[in-house]
Design goal:
Order of helices and strands: HEEEEEEEE
Largest sheet: 5 strands, mixed
Low-confidence stretches: 1-40
Oligomer: single chain
Strand order of the largest sheet: 1-6-5-2-3
Number of strands: 8
Helix content: 10-25%
Distance between the termini: 61 Å
């Protein structure tokens, strides 16, 4: 029994190492969820605002965590270190419809997620990283 658990542990570790190791720049993918509102006709017309997703000695965080954008801008979440996603949580944005879809987990440095800002102006929207929200990886987007 103990030997079986040990072998299963070794197999799981080897699988994880193979899956996580050896990535090249060619492996870096850009994930672009659909615009916030289904059938939205808004196209990117503004700036691209870069938000870094970081894990370091200070914790897990978005840099910057507070953003101001206009409709038509693009938010580009870029993985620097760690494993992160972006989730505009419905419970934390009460009464808001058409929130962006929750992103996949980014795992390779340089991977990005682009969100077209298509939310109503005059409000601030909450987002977080699902596995790190309780550790403080949260952000706020104000749409002008």
């Amino acid at each position: 029994m103990m030997r079986t658990r040990y072998l299963h542990g070794l197999l799981a570790s080897a699988t994880l190492l193979i899956a996580c190791g050896g990535g090249t720049d060619e492996d870096v993918a850009v994930t672009t969820p659909p615009p916030a509102a289904a059938g939205a006709s808004l196209t990117p017309t503004g700036d691209t605002l870069v938000v870094e997703m970081v894990t370091d000695g200070d914790g897990n965080f978005y840099r910057p965590a507070t953003l101001t954008a206009k409709r038509g801008d693009v938010l580009r979440f870029t993985l620097v270190t760690g494993v992160h996603n972006v989730h505009f949580v419905a419970d934390s944005n009460p009464g808001v419809t058409g929130l962006p879809a929750t992103s996949d987990m980014l795992q390779l440095p340089g991977q990005t997620i682009d969100y077209l800002v298509d939310l109503p102006a005059g409000a601030t929207y909450y987002f977080h990283c699902d596995p790190h929200a309780l550790l403080g990886m949260v952000g706020h987007l104000t749409v002008e």
